[in-house]
Amino acid sequence: MSNFDDIFESAPQTDEFDKEAWAAKKKAERDEVYALADATAEAVCADGGKFRDYLDVQAAFRNYSATNALLILATKPDARRLGDKDFWRDQGVYIKRQEFSRPIKIVESNGEYTRDDGSIGVSYNIKRVYDISQTTARTRAPQAVSHDARALLNALIYKRPAPVQSVDELPNGMDAVYDREQNAVFVRRGLSANDLFCGLSKALAQAELARTGEEYTEENAGFKAQCVSYILGKEFGVDVTGYAFEAPADFLRTDDPQTIRTELTDIRDTAYDISSRMMRSLEQSKAPRQSEQER
Prior knowledge:
The chain is of the alpha+beta class. It is 49% helix and 13% strand.
């Protein structure tokens, strides 16, 4: 009779998991990704064209942080839709073999933790995502964004941070201006829909920055508001060809990459807050029409 007792003998054990080596590897990867974000922040701050490219990426990926928008810009500036391999697999498509080693590395929060001194910190992991062009999905030409002009302007002033008044004239032929002393936005009458959106969105962004920013200065807030207005215009299909960002460093007033990222985060968060309100307004305006069509 055969003896099978050897089946139950201990199998050779592999090397024990080296927690310190694993942590060091993860830290090195995080440091590498943050170094890329910092280098890209310095690059966009030094060049108006690159700064505009950054704003284009941020407008296309409104839910992504400023740091991740910088990483997308550095890795794949023409990206249109991102997801990790599990996301794409759930869509029934897969990462192309030649693209698998070319992920876009972004930063993802892994939750809070308690430091040794009792303070609360946030840990971050590096997440690998891929653009739709790196998958087997059939790519389609992006559809142009289009909204009814009146609905879009109504959405822009939905739950506005300051009252808006129409006037016949404004200094220097301005289309719209935010007056912090009166906490009011003044808009020149007779503007086209596009000029009205661009001018009003900038003034409202400035009002939003005055409400939420701790260190508000008119020059710095004016530049940030112009960036917010540009992002909103790109997102909602408004003509933004008239915008120029020639010397972003003069307005951001820093050459420290982490401080630049903080400034870009302020721009991103302001644009996101206004955009979220606009989308809610646009959805509400669609709902009655859909109900009427269903009757």
